[in-house]
Amino acid sequence: MKDLFIIFQVVSACSNPPAPTGGNRCSSVKWYCGDGGHIYIPRFELDGRCLFSDGSWTSDFFTSDDLQDYVLRECGTPPACSAHGDWQPKGWWERWCSGPIIDDLEAACLSHDQCYSYRGLPWNRSKYRCDDDQHKNGLSICNNLKGVADSWFWKEPCIHSVHAKLWFHDDLQIGSLPFWVSAQIDGCGFGF
User: What's the rounded mean pLDDT across residues 71-98?
Assistant: First the structure.
């Protein structure tokens, strides 16, 4: 029984976000990476709100570009994808998101494009899982990115954009199924 308890403690520690440290009341937020893994993005408090940050008390809070860089770096690149365009940084003039969607959601679109193109293992994910991860990551941005989460003017449009994007991808299937098939054919990782 003692061994079972120790296994439970290890599994619990590995599946929960890191606890806040040093008097910080804000826990990290789970982010779903394009290869099926996940990371935890640190947050710190500003004016009573927990916002994405690099994890230091003296930090600047993340901008949308900072978040993209963080996700690209921390999620990592599978070896088989090192030369694939979905796993490379984009220029300041290029976008991950398509359609009428606010620029702040670019990091969610980055992971979504990676998810669509990844054919590696472990891969028990589908187009719908990729779309659901984009939805969850997008809502995390709306609720935790400075300039969005702390703005009554931007937070609600952000949430509506995230729900609309999922609706277009899954319910209407506008453009997303052919895009997923094409991404898988041109993708990286094992298979095909």
Answer: 87
Return the beta strands (E) in the chain as ranges.
Answer: 29-32, 38-41, 43-46, 49-52
Q: Helix, strand or coil for residue 29? A: strand
Nearest CA to 107 among 146, 78, 71? 71
Region 3-21 average pLDDT: 45
Residues near 144 by beta carbon (within 8 Å), at least 6 away in sequence:
29, 41, 43, 50, 51, 52
Two structure tokens written together for 59: 């930090």
- The CA distance from 121 to 32, in Å, is 15
Indicate the range of 116-120, 131-135, 156-160, 171-175 predicted with least confidence: 171-175
| Of residues 119, 128, 118, 120, the one with CA closest to residue 176 | 128
